Amino acid sequence: MADDKTVSDQQDQLRINLQDDGSVHEWAKKLDATPEQLKEAVAAVGDLASDVEAHLKGSRSSVNSERVHNAL
C-alpha cells in the first residue's frame, strides 16, 4: 500500500499548475495545445489533467498542431 506522500505526489502529477510556467509549457506540449488554450481549459473545468484533456478534445478541431507550433 502506498503511503500518503506517494499518493499525494501522484495526484499532483495529474494536476496542472498554472502558477508554474514550466508546468504550463510541459502540459501544453503534452496535450497539443497552446498555453492560452490550456489556461482557458483549466478555467472551464479545473486543474485535473484528464478533465482538461477531455475538454480540449471536445472544444477544438482535430487540426491544432499549426496553431500550437506558431504559439510556441
Q: What is the H/E string?
A: HHHHH
Mean pLDDT: 81
Question: How much β-strand is present in the residues?
Answer: under 5%
State the separation between the terminal residues, measured CA to CA: 41 Å
Number of helices: 5
Q: Low-confidence spans: pLDDT under 50, at least 5 residues?
A: none
Helix content: 55-70%
- Can you tell me the number of structural domains? 1
Shape: globular
Sheet with most strands: none
Number of strands: 0
Would you tell me the structural class of the helices and strands?
mainly alpha
- Please compute the radius of gyration using only Cα atoms: 13 Å
Written overview of the protein:
This protein has helices at 4-13, 21-30, 35-45, 49-59, 65-71. By secondary structure, the chain is mainly α. It has one domain (4-71). It is globular.
What does this entry show, briefly?
This protein has 72 residues and is mostly helical. It is built from five helices and no strands. It has helices spanning 4-13, 21-30, 35-45, 49-59, 65-71.
